[in-house]
Amino acid sequence: MYRYIVKRILLMIPTLFGAAALVFFLMRLIPGDICVIRLGSGGTSFTEQALAACHAEIGFDKPLWLQFVNFVWGFCRLDLGTSMWSGKPVAYEIAARFPVSLEIAILATIIAVIIAIPLGTISALKQNSSTDLVVRTFAIAGIAAPSFWLGIISLLVVLDLTQIFLGKPWMPPIDYVPLWQDPLRSLSIVILPAVTIGYRYSAVAMRMTRSAMLEVLREDYIRTARAKGLINRIIVNRHALKNAMLPVVTVIGIEFAFLVGGLVVTEQVFNLNGVGRLLVQAVQNQDYTLTQAIVMLIVTISVLSNLVVDVLYAWLDPRIRFA
Amino acid sequence: MRIRALLWEVGLVVALAALPAAAQEEGAKYGGTLTYMIPADAPPSFDGHREETYATIHSAAPFYSTLVRINPYDPGSTTDIVCDLCTAMPQPSDGGKTWTFKIRQGVKFHNGDPLTAADVAASLNEIAFPPPGVLSPRSDNFMMVKDITAPDPGTVVIDLKFATSAFLPALADPYNWVYEKKILDRDPHWYEKNIMGSGPFKFAGYEIGQSIKGVRNPDYYQKGLPYLDGFIGIFAPKQAVQLDAIRADRAGTEFRGYPPSAIDQLKQQLDGQIKVQESDWNCTLGAWINHKKKPFDDARVRRALTLAIDRWGSAPGLSKIAVMHTVGSIVFPGSPLAPSKAELDTLAGFWPDIEKSRAEARRLLKEAGAEGLSFELLNRNVDQPYKYLGTWLVDQWRKIGLQVTQRVVPTGPWFAALRSGDFSVGTGGSCHGIVNPPIDVQTWLPLPVNKGNYGYFEDQKEIDLYDKMLHETDPVKQQDDMWNFVKWVLDDQAHIIQTLWWYRIVPLRSYVNGWKIGPSHYLNQDLSTIWLSPPQCGKCGSEPSPAG
Fold first, then answer.
1. Contact predicate B115/B221, CB 8 Å
2. Is B234 an 8 Å CB contact of chain A?
3. Does residue A159 belong to any structural domain of this protein?
4. Which chain A residues are Cβ-neighbours of B52 within 8 angstroms?
5. Residue A213 is part of which domain span?
């Protein structure tokens, strides 16, 4: 087991290097210039001297291969460099945003798990019944509705309902406070986006739970358990659900990794200052160092969460042993 | 008529300059914290000398002072410039080439250090003559300045190379913040990451990328100001979020402005709890015509493009859905140097009879052998007003038989295409912090004097006309010179396509008072004159609390 984990960690190196090369060169294929955006996007004119000074300041005058080597070497030393846009350390820029994204990701995952596993299980147990139909419709609607649309609608609904029932419109605060500073305020800020994302997330996990449960419920050992006269609750909870969880855990793991850096639109809709919004800004501003660092962060989280999922497999299914 | 209007305006400027800059507003209350939306992502830095984005102004202007500024009680005027750190508006000597400013005594920076003329001179020098490694995108605004000195702690002397009406507005640019010389000498980049000025509010905190906070400066030199205990500016680039926040009273206002449709919706939702202020806006968007691409090197084709556009007929409709509003030349319509309506009517594309105008456009295209011409309009992927402008222009050009498609790309590739010349016609415009037409029209100057000319044309006559206008000190003659310049650029050569000037509509919750709109979203943003009605003002005193 330990050898397997070490091997997987070592395999991360070429994956991360490949991702680094890809993001570094893809970013440079986009036409444009961070200095021109910075100096000219307000509509005002600027001098060529100002442009040259800006280029020199951010190190654009160095050859491309040297920029790449510096980037990879910096990443190896956990030095992500300096944002070309703000001049601040990239680690500082990301660290300021990471708690928001992490809090939403965790809360959305909790919401998704709370909704998906019971409903998916009930839906499988009552296959083709009206309950199953309702649950499946709920799940399909969750997959079909884009998160940003759901976000906008949920905000408008809250505003309109509070206007109707309280006499004045209300919406959650828009300046984020970390959970450890003011838990209630923090939760009131992130609950709406977490529910919005959690719903879509739960829909995916719910469908996976249902199909995995249906498959497991048809297995011989379940039939044997029934023949032995075990009560249905024990069959479902102890024998079926645990085994059906393997694909569900995979889905949850992949989605979680996506949520940490992928809430691009939802963070914009709710004005949350998270990693996803930072990534959009970085790409729009053509801030190469910041974009590279965020993409590498997302890749690292994805690789690590896959590793965690694989380790969880062994715990969930004792038959799985890693060589 | 025009001469009389100009003389009246000059007289008004002199009279207003004599008024004290700060006078307590009747009924104003002290106290409370104003929360407002900053409709942008956080700025790259807080250094006003180096940044171009209004996000820098909207977040950090309340912390700083300037030598002179547009009168905060009359920001709608384009010429009412008053003292901020100086004691009285000076009369220039040496034929308008030497300006001597007396600096207020007893002004302190927020760190307690005294502010002297040396600080003012050092700050202005950094903008006008940036040392190596220091970015100053507005240094060209001071091209008339020879040197800036502080002969004693209470005096700043600015010597000009030539007298020009462009100097005083350039000096009143809202970005010209006064920094402490001691800090600039030690590290000219210090102000990029730190805030320390002498303005009405002291820096109280910055949540990176999210919000900025200020608290009242009890030692502020403008007596009786500011009224607020503090402010919180929240960065929010999405319009829907800003509007929701104002609706739910999470914010009292947003100072940049919205299109009419958004304002109408807010008014409907907040019946009686919202007020709006409106103004023409010193921003305009039109189109660059790339003279290096055939057949756009032919003035007849360029004239046809501009003649096809029904500015007078379209403005009322466009202004309902977009920030585009006022028909005008390349000179801001509210400026004394702007052409009259009668003059405008004679310019290509501004004729009152659009059918006649389009018939002439078709004739010119035929004469130039460019009938049914097909080309692509390069546009920026920004809603207001780029996409509205693009769609409108394509429609207008189709009415003279042109086949035009749009290529809408993000800001980076849009700039890249403009700068590489890889386009035929591309959207472009200008937006300025203060109305200063002799400087503002530099955007349209030809190569090689203006490297940012994306029309890629050279035109010595245009440069000569500009220089004559810039150096003219007689207001009436300068207006004539400006008219000759405008006519040459927009009519004779049709170098660029000028469309409509923008219009600002700013919503304020009904408890937000004391702020006046100006023709630029960069102006009047130090928040010192703003006060809140009860209960938002808290204890709502008629005097500031001793603790500030």
1. no
2. yes
3. yes
4. 38-42, 44, 46
5. 102-273
